[in-house]
Amino acid sequence: MFIVQLLLTNTLASLHHLEVIDMSDNYLVGSIPSSIHTLSSLEDVSFAYNHLNGSLPDDGLCRLKNLQELDLSGNKFDGNLSQCFNSLTSLKLFDISSNRLTGTLSPSLFANLTSLEYVDFSHNKFEGSLSFSSFSNLTKLEVVAFISNDDRFEVETEEPIGWVPMFQLKVLVLSNCNINRLKGRVFPSFLLHQHKLHVLDLSHNSLEMQFPIWFINNNSDLEVISLRNNSVAGTIGVPLYRNANTWWLDTSDNQMTGTIPLDIGNIFPYITYLNLSQNSLSGPLPWSMAALSKIEMLDLSNNNLSGEVPERLLSNCRQLMGLQLSNNSLYGEILSRKFNASQLGILLLDNNHFTGVLTNEIRTEGLSLFMLDISGNLFSGAIPKWMTNLTNLNSLVIRDNMFEGQFPCGMAVFSYLDISQNNFSGSVPSCFGMSGSNMKHLHLGSNRFTGSIPKSFLNLTNLLTLDMSNNKLLSKIPYFLGELSSLRILLLRNNNFAGIIPTHLCQLSYLRLLDLSTNFLFGSIPDCLQNITQSSQVVFLKTQKIDYMIEHLFYHYGSVLRNFDLDRYDEFYVKRDEVEFLTKSRSDTYKGGILDYMSGLDLSCNNLTGEIPKELGMLVQIRAVNLSHNQLTGRIPSSFSNLADIESLDISSNHLSGKIPSVLIGLYSLSTFIVANNNLAGSIPQENQFATFTADSYEGNPFLCGPPLAKSCAPEKTNLTLMIAPEENEEEKWYDVDMVFFRASLVSTWFVFLMGFFGILYVNPNWSRRWFVLVEECLYTCYYFLSDCFL
């Protein structure tokens, strides 16, 4: 790295006639010294994409009166932007994007910059409102870019009312700028006067408007149109003039209705990126889509589209790299026929009504498919071998179909594999372990796999998710699972695993969800499970993310030829991992980033014995614990009071005794508490969250009393302790004994005893005689004793 102060002081200070400094894309550090003003002949200054920091040297840069181009983008400058820059009346290019500048932007900053052609203030930390009419008199203005990173910056285009721009823009980027937030988020009216635009990006502004057909028709040079994430309503509609220049159109995440124009292939003949996803479009896919010969990325997901996919879409569109049709009502046998899209890398057909058996006739030579998602459809039959022999295939999701037979092993090395909710049978393929450190997420649940977990899984050293629930696996839980140190989610519920819970699982300190429920496990709960759920590292926020870059070039001719590059990576596809976990007495699906914060332990429906380890109270990040339907004994550990984040605690259907610890009233996040069908006794806590639980939480405990149960706790004091075992570290309370129940049981016990005694005497005359002799002897003995004492 080179320190820029030394560079300017020692190397360039003597070059008084220097006109251009271009030090972009180096490793310069430090700040720009104010002494730069001594280079008074400078016309072009660029320190773009270095590691410069500090505030901008106002008294230095602002004194360069001949300056025409100033590019400080891609650094770490902070502080406010000085008003002195409005004195640079010769300035044509002003780019301070991708820094850390703060404060507000005053309209007077631009008032005198009448030569300005290019301004880019994107990706800073500006606040407040900027009136776009500040640029109205800048007759040479062609490029304006403001991309905000937060919700604190606003662009106002409607004040003053009726202002008319003196410029004709070629590039307008106002993304995430809260356009006209106080004016009802209306479409900028000054665009009525623009006819030379090449790029328009108004994404992420919640604009409320109809689809601007008039705008597209009035700007025949439009190349890039992005209205993503607004409230655009209406239809795409016709007429749309043939626009040979448009190659990027994104109207995703809006409120558009109607159908896709039948002649869309003729309207945009050279389009390469088309994203109409997350709207309410209906009807079939037009056959003219097969005429989009230049299309590279096509996203029509999350609409109400129906009908069959045009057969030629996957054969004629030879440049197609990404096709996403997810979450529609499309049908047909799309994968039962050949396709020739050799460039196709992403094919997402999930959650439709596609049917049929996958064809075995796909030629894999040259096929570059690396992501395939056909989940949530009606595909059937066996998985063809070509699918697992694709060496580029990194992500395969075929869950929730009707596939059957054995899953074929191949040469593919997976990072994400989900074949759950099908009818696969046989032993678990050992080849899954051959993916080694590449495998991050493996979902095999809800199939018919038998046998044990293959030892080859020991190779999955970077595995985050392992879901093998709802199968017919047996044997013991293998100890080597404890060697998968990166594991965050381990789901083995509803299998035939037997034996004890291996203590090796305690080595999984990053584990967030552990579900071993509904098996045949026995023995005690390992107290070392206190070691899990210790990590708070974010790994699930975006499991797989596919972006597509806008590489539009707009050249600015100055001392140095520059191009305006949008440098934007728009999300084409985001795959977030998802699992099911039982909590709050229901099975919920947790997806994406929530998995980084959800943590739970489910050991229910086994044959576990012994006491609940008090060490489980050290799982301070745990949100759900389910130990129900086992053979656990002893008391509820008072250490559970440390589970500050717990929301669901189910320890029902065991043999627990003692009282409900009163210290649990401090668990303010607890919304589900179930201790039914145990041997608990005493009064039920009434404070805080415990006042919200119903009688269902406590049923099947005959010695519990107090609301919400109908059985009240008697107010009479007694020293008897037969009914309640004393709570650890607590004194016995007289009101913990149900006196009505005690008296009734005492009388009934004596009555049964006497009736049994007299019954025996009645049926056995010999014992009767002996009893009367004994009574007679006792009477004589008492008589003579009293006579000797008192007579």
As a whole number of angstroms, the C-alpha radius of gyration is 38 Å
| Main beta-sheet annotation | 25 strands, parallel
CATH architecture annotation of the domain at 482-541 and 580-708 = Alpha-Beta Horseshoe
Full CATH superfamily name of the domain at 482-541 and 580-708: Ribonuclease Inhibitor
Please report the total strand number as a whole number: 58
CATH third-tier fold name of the domain at 482-541 and 580-708: Leucine-rich repeat, LRR (right-handed beta-alpha superhelix)
Inertia-based shape: elongated
Percent helix range: 10-25%
| CA-CA gap between termini | 123 Å
Low-confidence stretches: 716-736
The total of helices stands at 9
- The average pLDDT score comes to 86
CATH class of the domain at 482-541 and 580-708: Alpha Beta
* Percent in strands: 25-35%
Helix-strand category:
mainly beta
SSE topology sketch:
Elements: E1 2-3, H1 4-11, E2 20-22, E3 28-30, E4 44-46, E5 51-54, H2 58-61, E6 69-71, E7 76-80, E8 93-95, E9 100-103, H3 108-111, E10 118-120, E11 125-126, E12 128-131, E13 143-147, E14 153-156, E15 171-175, E16 199-201, E17 208-210, H4 213-218, E18 224-226, E19 231-235, E20 248-250, E21 255-257, H5 264-267, E22 273-275, E23 282-283, E24 297-299, E25 304-308, H6 313-316, E26 322-324, E27 329-332, E28 346-348, E29 353-357, E30 371-373, E31 378-381, H7 385-388, E32 395-397, E33 402-405, E34 416-418, E35 423-427, E36 441-443, E37 448-451, E38 465-467, E39 472-473, E40 489-491, E41 498-499, E42 513-515, E43 520-523, E44 544-550, E45 553-556, E46 562-565, E47 568-575, E48 578-583, E49 586-591, E50 600-602, E51 607-611, E52 624-626, E53 631-634, E54 648-650, E55 655-658, E56 672-674, E57 679-683, E58 703-705, H8 739-763, H9 765-790
